[in-house]
Specification:
homodimer, mainly alpha, Arc Repressor Mutant, subunit A, two-stranded antiparallel sheet, 6 helices, 2 strands, about 45% helix, DNA-binding
Chain lengths: ~140, ~140
DNA sequence: TTTAATTACTACCCTAAGGTAGAATTAAAT
DNA sequence: ATTTAATTCTACCTTAGGGTAGTAATTAAA
């Protein structure tokens, strides 16, 4: 019961970008140093984030990354969805295909309650809020 | 954000065993048929459950499996622990090493709330309760 | 004693996640 | 023009989860 490393890293990378002076671009090297994420692995994630349009890259000397969509409009849920980490509405926690509101498994109701709470947290947490003053990143 | 297939299967296997007439043993073949879990994969799980002492096996013709510990004393949490699927207390949802009660990540408090709720559900759900009358398995 | 039905053991195979390596491309600075 | 600092592309490696195959061991029934 946990998020994938890639999701976790991605959220922290984007939050770190928010806190960088946005007059300049931030490079992969700098992010890798800040977050202690292996450089090559980080660039792989960055390329994916460029591909889906969360960020933009400028190549060549003095290049780097910057947000394309504002950090206040990218949510944790968006990231989890990108890496197939989000909690699907229909998903029974015990993996029972026929479990639904009519025919419930023993955990159905409690799981729904937790699931909604988590989904709400993921949806309401923007990258901007993750990066806000006083929060550990 | 999900449980491993092995954990899900295991919970359902044990619940299925509860609902079997316990005057007789239940065989891997029967469980595999009941739950549509591939026979060979199921026997692999069963051998592990024997190894850790949840169930007992009787080999040879007319053999099969039965509970060693009562189903009312095996919890979902026990199973998740066995397959490294449980939620650790210290674990930050964003994977931040230095995140703790003093220095929190943005999701810390909300995550703790959900985490406690889930841990409680896992701890309080016995195999017996999963198998109880009226529940989908 | 043989046979059939059962679990256990050993050794694989496949896929995806996580991670690494090297070279190609880009563009500013010199 | 050349150098340098950056991203991107392609290809690979390693590990763990999920799953399969074959065979040995066991034991009760026939």
């Amino acid at each position: 019961m946990h998020l994938s490393n890639t999701s976790k890293y991605t959220i922290r990378i984007l939050a770190n970008m928010v806190n960088h002076k946005d007059t300049t671009l931030i490079s992969a090297k700098e992010l890798s140093d800040n977050l202690k994420i292996p450089y090559k692995f980080l660039t792989k994630i960055m390329t994916e984030l460029v591909r889906v349009g969360f960020i933009e890259s400028i190549r060549g000397r003095e290049g780097g990354y910057k947000f394309l969509r504002p950090a206040s409009e990218i949510t944790v849920g968006d990231i989890l969805e990108l890496f197939n980490d989000s909690i699907k509405d229909e998903e029974c926690i015990l993996g029972i295909d026929s479990c639904n509101a009519k025919q419930k498994c023993a955990l159905h109701d409690k799981w729904i309650k937790s699931k909604i709470q988590l989904q709400k947290m993921f949806k309401e947490s923007t990258i901007e809020s993750i990066a806000a003053e006083g929060n550990k990143i």
